[in-house]
Amino acid sequence: MLIMKTNKSITALILIGTVFYACSADQRKSTTQQEQTVGDTLATSVADTIVTGVNDAVVKGDSLLLVPGKSAGKVSINQDAEEVYILLGKADAGDAAMQKSVAIWYKNHDPKAYSTSIYTVRDTGNNPPARIKQVRVTSPGFKTKEGIGVSSTLAEIQNKYSVTKLADVTDQGEVLEMYDNLAGIAFEVNGKGICKAIIIHSANEGLKPTSLPLR
User: What is the C-alpha to C-alpha distance for residues 122 and 81, in angstroms, rounded to an integer?
Assistant: First the structure.
């Protein structure tokens, strides 16, 4: 009788252990799938944020931060352009000539929507990487730490930055006044005094004309 009871107890323990293991495996599988889904969503959102400045409710932190002389979101001045191209995918427009290139991405691939333009320069030599020299954004989602961005007024910009007026530029038939700050940030302002685009460039150099159009 004692042996039979012992066998039943062992059998019961084995059954309990099997059920527990199965539940744990299912839970681990479910957790892994959830983590993968979240990871895929964030990866997509990061790329979308860099291009258009949207999805800021999903991607927070410095993904939409403009840092004069350093970065626009996740894109940095002097960064290897190939790293950004891998993340963003094929550009919607662009041009290249004489070791220089411009790549432009539009929100939803619509040329009339928000855009991000990246200007790169490649030095001569043994196939050096193309380095990012200017980043132009038109989405109001991007802001400096002072809260300045596209849609800010010229008065608001001048209240936070000492700017010098440069030559005017034209974007889709609209004449824009260009204002630059030596810290490495320039503002394109329309006739109503509203910022329409911001360019991040190298600090202490002033905004240099590009050999290829950013717009």
Answer: 10
